[in-house]
Fold this sequence. Notes:
The chain is mostly helical. Helix content is 71%, strand content 0%.
Amino acid sequence: xxxxxxxxxxxxxxxxxxxxxxxxxxxxxxxxxxxxxxxxxxxxxxxxxxxxxxxxxxxxxxxxxxxxxxxxxxxxxxxxxxxxxxxxxxxxxxxxxxxxxxxxxxxxxxxxxxxxxxxxxxxxxxxxxxxxxxxxxxxxxxxxxxxxxxxxxxxxxxxxxxxxxxxxxxxxxxxxxxxxxxxxxxxxxxxxxxxxxxxxxxxxxxxxxxxxxxxxxxxxxxxxxxxxxxxxxxxxxxxxxxxx
Length: 244
């Protein structure tokens, strides 16, 4: 991260801390099996696991409904659960990064991965060595970073366009992720400063933490859901991706 700005490095520090929470990395097959078996027979589920929901012929309207249910479920979890004690090294890092900020982004990362898989993306590990970078793109979209939306289209293209090599995606991410991370870092710096001050008074801290969930989490998740829906719909309509 030597070439990154201090704001970008701050974001990646938060990201790395959030990824230390148990369950931060979603098992795509396990999640999709559990999610789609409620709506589809096992043969269809097996096809979803193999090629993704869209290419398996799942309707976008069902994907959108399932995405909405996922957001509702995780909103409740994010608002009522604390994993601070389970973060390795959390007490040390909390001096510069409030643990509740990392906890919040843990829930954001979990939701982002699940939304991506619901809308038919392959395992994020299949993007080569770009796991943290792709997650940063997702969070950039959720945070309203314009450049992240364009880059998300490139991520989707890399998964549905069999001729687009991972090295091509890597080059695209190299050009954009540093800027996306810097914007996220600026937003986080402002939020974290207020939360560090608020933690001096526990009751106030609780209000701030709850407010962050209620007023940030749901809009962020909905922003990614709508962007994924729109991107897949556009590619479906122009024939870029078709059910197999």
